[in-house]
Amino acid sequence: MTxxxxxxxxxxxxxxxxxxKLTGVGAAGIAIGASGMGGILSTFGKDWLVEDDDSTAKNKxxxxxxxxxxxxxxxxxxxxxxxxxxxxxxKEELKQLFKDWTPxxxxxxxxxxVDQTTNEMVPPKDTGEAMGLDAKNLTLTFGVGPSLFEKIxxxxxxxxxxxxxxHFPKDQLQEDFSDGDICIQAxxxxxxxxxxxxxxxxxxxxxxxxxxxAQAGFNAIPIKNGKVETPRNLFAFKDGTENPKSQKxxxxxxxxxxxESKSWLTGGTYLIARRIQMHLETWDRTALDEQDAxxxxxxxxGAPIGKKNxxxxxxxxxxxxxxxxxxxxxxxxxxxxxxxARMLRRSFSYASGVIDKTGSHDxxxxxxxxxKDPQQFIDIQNSLGRLDKMNEYITHRGSALFACFPGVKKGxxxxxxxxxxx
Length: 422
Description:
- By secondary structure, this protein is an alpha+beta fold.
- It folds into 2 domains: about 1-50, no CATH class; about 60-420, no CATH class.
- It is about 25% helix and about 20% strand.
- It contains 12 helices and 11 strands.
- Strands 1, 2, 3, 4, 7, 8, 9, 10 and 11 form a 9-stranded antiparallel sheet that branches. Strands 5-6 form a two-stranded antiparallel ribbon.
- Strand 9 and strand 10 (about 360-370) form a beta hairpin.
- The two termini are about 35 Å apart.
């Protein structure tokens, strides 16, 4: 986009008919490839804007691809997760919203401002707090909740799996941290970059969406001998050891394949967000061997109890010479592994001050998982049930489920298949 205000005004006055004349496309309808038309259209006003991934940008993750970024992407150190309420009433208005967000998302992931033009007589189009920072590996991931389909008529396009999660044992959910019509997950290696992205996307949609709830989070990602290690949660245990690592594994566990759900979700996934309060004061008074027994792993190494290395097979059926399970039957891992379901964990810690006047930390885990079917999470959570020793130290305060779109092709827009498929 040009930085010259006069050129910017000239762009707005050029019609599509004039554009076709200027580019030599007449009534005969000379074919132009998708990328060529995208480059041409990006010159002539926002309605036709197509932004490119900038291959020269520093610390850059590509926006376009088969699957959305921010899912199998290597975990960043920060998240700003936003759940939004939709204010528009029609499918066309919602479609335009996602069209408008698409070039902004590309620019943000390029490490650019959403608009470089300035006019001192009006508020700037970009809030500016990310100026001077590069892309910081920003990823933006978009999803839609079950409530959206109650507001906007999409016919029979709502998947049967997209429904409010059931109530689980020990849930004490708060509406202030639950559900939503749309989610945007912004992850980056700088907290201000992640916040800036959400702030500007919501600002650009003023009057069409409003914030329902949001949560910032952080990760500390160790690097040892040049190798990235598994991050730890606020209980100091490693989180995400058994995540899918390969694309084939992701296709089996995370991404919906053709015929597995509604066609608009092929290449997409389901995101589950749970705001889990960790009772740190209680945990901090617990002996280390009891902490290990609660998780079913050794805290320092991350190895299964009785083993030495983090990635050693868990083998929950192992027993000692007395016939007792080596990994306690009430441990978090034992119960989770008792069912065959798997998922991708992409969780972040949070610290949001203190709770009321008790002086206790309002801190814990913004648990985020991706799976091709919410039932994978439901099976695991039901298996944990009331036996999980972890329940002594945590309380689930928020819960939400979203269907995340497949990736975006250049020249397309976020969620296009939802609006255009039969």
